[in-house]
């Protein structure tokens, strides 16, 4: 007989620990119910999950399922198959069964907030995770998807600064724009320079609506950025980083550079 609980992750003393969450009792037959169909799984509304070094992150797991009797409940998790050895690393936790919202007599969408904790993450965790869901029907039958989503990207939070002194400048004179690209280091729980990444220097004319790319600059070994460009028009300068698979995209606020008359 299948146990009437599923393992998920809770936080205990800053480390990952397994705990059991009660779910409705299921039929004695330890066989999935093929009539219970898991139709759709969405994590974090389809966006990457971006985590810094201190602030906990909540990502919503939404599972749409159907059964002739309707859907009673769901428990889910985010999990990563270990690169070496059997088993999974699991992130995401909740002490409650997911509430389900009926779309019809047979179909419901169940939503579960999954807590992502920087204290439990390492840099190697910035990769693609899968979603697991265990769903129970109103007839107390069950079905599950063990790895039903393979495109949930977990990313390290990127940060970017900009400076363009002195201000104002004489029209046509060289303007030096500096900055620094850093990202969350989950191993040290600090932010560190993101070396050698291409970052765009962009300009928006005062009163204009869009930024235009002036040039692309590659950061130093510490993530430092520096370039010189003629100051011809009054407006806002910023750096723009497109992001990588492991690190989130980020734009600086525009810094206004006035032109001397």
Provide an overview of this structure:
- The chain has 261 residues and is mostly beta strands.
- Helices cover 0% and strands 55% of the residues.
- The protein contains no helices and 23 strands.
- Strands 4, 6, 7, 10, 11 and 12 form a six-stranded mixed beta sheet that branches. Strands 17, 18, 20, 21 and 22 form a five-stranded antiparallel beta sheet that branches.
- The model is unreliable at 1-28 (pLDDT under 50).
The topology string of helices and strands comes to EEEEEEEEEEEEEEEEEEEEEEE
In angstroms, what separates the terminal alpha carbons? 83 Å
What oligomerization state is this entry in?
single chain
- What's the overall average pLDDT, rounded? 85
Number of E-state strands: 23
Compile the SSE list and pairings.
Blueprint: E1 5-12, E2 15-22, E3 37-43, E4 49-51, E5 57-66, E6 71-81, E7 88-91, E8 100-102, E9 107-116, E10 128-137, E11 142-145, E12 152-156, E13 158-163, E14 169-170, E15 174-185, E16 190-193, E17 198-205, E18 212-218, E19 224-230, E20 235-241, E21 250-251, E22 255-257, E23 259-260
Parallel strand pairs: 4-12, 14-23
Antiparallel strand pairs: 1-2, 3-5, 5-9, 6-7, 6-10, 8-9, 10-11, 10-12, 13-15, 15-16, 15-19, 17-18, 17-20, 20-21, 20-22
């Amino acid at each position: 007989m299948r146990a009437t609980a599923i393992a998920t992750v809770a936080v205990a003393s800053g480390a990952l620990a397994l705990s059991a969450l009660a779910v409705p009792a299921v039929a004695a037959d330890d066989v999935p119910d093929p009539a219970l169909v898991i139709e759709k799984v969405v994590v974090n509304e389809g966006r990457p999950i971006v985590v810094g070094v201190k602030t906990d992150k909540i990502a919503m797991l939404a599972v749409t399922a159907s059964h002739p009797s309707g859907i009673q409940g769901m428990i889910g998790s985010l999990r990563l198959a270990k690169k070496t050895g059997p088993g999974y690393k699991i992130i995401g936790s909740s002490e409650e069964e997911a509430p389900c919202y009926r779309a019809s007599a047979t179909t419901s969408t169940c939503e579960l907030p999954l807590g992502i904790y920087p204290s439990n993450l390492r840099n190697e965790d910035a990769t693609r995770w899968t979603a697991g869901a265990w769903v129970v029907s109103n007839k107390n039958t069950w079905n599950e998807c063990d790895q039903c989503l393979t495109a949930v990207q977990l990313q390290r939070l990127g940060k970017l600064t900009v400076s363009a002194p002195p201000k104002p400048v004489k029209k046509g004179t060289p303007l030096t724009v500096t900055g620094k690209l850093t990202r969350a280091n989950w191993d040290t729980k600090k932010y560190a320079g993101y070396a050698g990444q291409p970052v765009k220097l962009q300009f928006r004319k005062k009163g204009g609506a869009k930024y235009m790319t002036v040039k692309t600059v590659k950061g130093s070994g510490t993530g430092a950025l520096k370039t010189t460009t003629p100051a011809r028009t009054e407006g806002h300068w910023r750096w723009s980083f497109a992001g990588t698979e492991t690190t989130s995209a980020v734009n600086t606020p525009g810094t206004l550079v006035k032109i001397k008359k």
